[in-house]
């Protein structure tokens, strides 16, 4: 596994080609193109703020920023997992005809979505400034949080994309899971508002990155226990995902 990971360094140009292709396809035939990367989070923030603050009467300080700092990393994760689950099938012709480490495809998919997320942080920092939210030294830990988040997401995409080659229902199962998963994660509500479910959050792998990202951006704090939990979850997921991918990769050509 570690040999395969090291091998990826020899394919930097190919990884970037895949990533740039996906970025271009994302905004192809769109009049506003790249601008949608900035408009989309603003529109999501407005919709969720109206729905939860004014209709459902959520009483959370700086609610719009609370929503934004939760929904954006969630959107990165959801786009990566749902898009990544089908990435081997979607690139079937390439997989059959050309040799390259197949894990480059899911890696590029996750990288594309991470780049999109990093772009939207422009809106987040602008919102923090307008809301007069203090940005402190704990922000320096955000890159570590995002790296662990990336590793976890990549590991899960490796697992799901390989399984989807054999079991095509995996994709539809993932879509259904995401419908419920967001409501089991404190994205649009606080942990204190669901105290009776707090024990359940600790078993939710998305609880840790969402809370850690929000804490570093809005509250100038971080839980090092959460960081350790993220690291454990990330590397275990990467290990399981890689092992599964390498094993199933042998039948890719036959199954797709």
From TrEMBL:
<feature type="transmembrane region" description="Helical">
    <location>
        <begin position="63"/>
        <end position="83"/>
    </location>
</feature>
<dbReference type="InterPro" id="IPR047817">
    <property type="entry name" value="ABC2_TM_bact-type"/>
</dbReference>
<keyword id="KW-1003">Cell membrane</keyword>
<dbReference type="Pfam" id="PF01061">
    <property type="entry name" value="ABC2_membrane"/>
</dbReference>
<dbReference type="GO" id="GO:0043190">
    <property type="term" value="C:ATP-binding cassette (ABC) transporter complex"/>
</dbReference>
<feature type="transmembrane region" description="Helical">
    <location>
        <begin position="170"/>
        <end position="191"/>
    </location>
</feature>
<dbReference type="InterPro" id="IPR013525">
    <property type="entry name" value="ABC2_TM"/>
</dbReference>
<protein>
    <recommendedName>
        <fullName>Transport permease protein</fullName>
    </recommendedName>
</protein>
<keyword id="KW-0813">Transport</keyword>
<feature type="transmembrane region" description="Helical">
    <location>
        <begin position="224"/>
        <end position="242"/>
    </location>
</feature>
<comment type="similarity">
    <text>Belongs to the ABC-2 integral membrane protein family.</text>
</comment>
<dbReference type="InterPro" id="IPR000412">
    <property type="entry name" value="ABC_2_transport"/>
</dbReference>
<feature type="transmembrane region" description="Helical">
    <location>
        <begin position="140"/>
        <end position="163"/>
    </location>
</feature>
<feature type="domain" description="ABC transmembrane type-2">
    <location>
        <begin position="32"/>
        <end position="248"/>
    </location>
</feature>
<keyword id="KW-1133">Transmembrane helix</keyword>
<keyword id="KW-0472">Membrane</keyword>
<feature type="transmembrane region" description="Helical">
    <location>
        <begin position="31"/>
        <end position="51"/>
    </location>
</feature>
<keyword id="KW-0997">Cell inner membrane</keyword>
<keyword id="KW-0812">Transmembrane</keyword>
<dbReference type="GO" id="GO:0015920">
    <property type="term" value="P:lipopolysaccharide transport"/>
</dbReference>
<dbReference type="GO" id="GO:0140359">
    <property type="term" value="F:ABC-type transporter activity"/>
</dbReference>
<feature type="transmembrane region" description="Helical">
    <location>
        <begin position="104"/>
        <end position="128"/>
    </location>
</feature>
